Amino acid sequence: MNKYWSRRDFLKRKFNLGAALLGCLAMGGLPAGVHGAIRRLTSMPEDPFTLGVASGDPTPESVILWTRLSSEVMSQLGAVNDTIAVDYEISPTRNFSNAIRSGSIAAVADLGHSVHADIRGLEPDKVYYYRWHVGGVTSPIGRTKTAPSASARNQHFRLAFASCQQYEHGYFTAYQHMAEEEFDLIIHLGDYIYERSWGNNLVRRHEGPEIITLNDYRNRYHTYKSDPDIQAAHGSAPWVVTWDDHEVDNNYAAQIAEDDQTPEQLLQRRAAAYQAYYEFMPIRLPVGRQGPDMPIHRRLRFGNLMEMHVLDTRQYRNDQACGDGRKRSCAEHQDPTRTVLGQAQKNWLFDSLATTDATWNVLAQQIMMASLRSVGEAEGEELWPMDIWDGYPLERQEVLDHLDRVNTPNPIVLTGDIHSNWAADLKLDFDSPSSKLIGSEYIGTSISSGGDGQDMTEYGSDLLSNNPHVKFYNANRGYVAATLTPELWQTDYKIVPYITSQGAPLSIRQSYVTEAGKPGVQEA
Ligand code: FE
Ligand code: CA
Question: What's the 39 CA to ligand 1 centre distance in angstroms?
Fold first, then answer.
């Protein structure tokens, strides 16, 4: 028996095992999780923790701890179908001199030997360290942090957000820098993997053609998560993750594929993609997971400073209007029944925005909300980017009207998807210069998608001049850091000058702020 286990821990261990079993059984569409006995390994042919460790979805008293046993090692052990006991420890100190909790979780074959330990009973607003043990091997140590208590009058919070990391386009150098900052929280806004290759000058390859099956998606995540920089960032802070399109298929909408798959085929593919996402992410098991359905929109609170609404703008949306791309408006575009959020998510969001009392109310989501229209070739022709909120203008208006009507304090929209940095005012009417400001939108560039990048592009300068509510553009690679106090939200756009070779330094390209009580973005 592991030397860290007391009798009391043994009881907890049983409890956690129960929770893991329950979790597996709740995964609809899967055969019941555990087959036969739980196997306790006593030795390992090699390190099974090659994908690192992670934590996520912090609350004031809990956090999810994650790891996944190497499938290669499982097959060397003849354990691919076995249920394996994996032990964890969590401690307020990095040397584990007083591990406050240890226990065991069943890693089941149906979930690719991933483990998600929902550790309860922790103290609020506190840094913890954790590690895993299996067969005499110890994992790297991860750092995590619980959320402040819901009623805390916390004065300071630091977060980072990132998105879009096409593995073939470059190195994840930005994550190395992010890890060093030891944020309170890291948010991932989607395109964690890419389902296919695109672009030139690929600096490294992910294997195979476009991915379709569960096995394909697992292999793709395996490649991305083998990267040491992304492992360092996961090990440095708790993450809150949401997906965009490339976790399934470029620009998919609910059950509509980009290419020639039928809705039935896309739903099967979506079930595989969503399951792999769960297996590889430090995310709390979504309630209502059933085959191709996986509701991941959720709310997290960080004391009185921040209420965060994590949104899903892909799973429930109507197909892009007028044939997708940048198009003139058509009748479909103006259909008031078209949705990005879907009715259930929208009801939940609207209720929450009407009752929140936090200083900063974040929508952590994927697609640009501020209008980003451009001028077409023909006289007076206006082009709308149909994949982002511009493609769903009536529902966007509903969201903006609601924020205004219920007077949500300080709405801040965080966005990924478009591989460039922007700062924008959210207005009740984007076409009227004098229209009321409703909130602020900060859009973060990609970690690697698009290659090295550059400061300004023709695309960026055109859109800046066509959209006066949009204040800032930059197309380098990097991530965005934000510092929150009761008076001020500060956004620092952190960039690296290149990613097609390693070792790029980090710098702050620009900072923007939003003052509490004064919606909109201002250059710092
Ligand atoms: Fe992307
Ligand atoms: Ca995207």
Answer: 40
Q: Identify each DSSP E strand in 214-293 by its residue range.
A: 239-241
* Ligand 1 geometric centre to CA of 421 (Å): 13
The full set of domains in the chain, from first to last, is: 7-36+161-523 (3.60.21.70), 37-144 (2.60.40.380)
Distance 161 CA to ligand 2 centre (A): 15
- pLDDT, tens digit (0-9, with 9 covering 90-100), for 496-512: 999 999 999 999 999 99
Is 224 in contact with 193 (CB distance < 8 Å)?
A: yes
Separation of 468 CA from ligand 1 center, angstroms? Answer: 25
pLDDT number for residue 208 = 80
Ligand 1 center to residue 246 CA distance, Å?
A: 7
Which three-class secondary structure string do you get for 96-128? CCCCCEEEEEEECHHHCCEEEEEECCCCCCCEE
Find the ligand nearest to 165 CA: 1
Cα-Cα-Cα-Cα torsion 340, 308, 517, 373, nearest 10 degrees, comes to -30
Residue 36: pLDDT band with limits 50, 70, 90: low
Chain-wide mean pLDDT for the chain? Answer: 93
Residue 1 reports pLDDT greater than 50: no
- Measured in Å, residue 164 CA sits from the centre of ligand 1 at 4
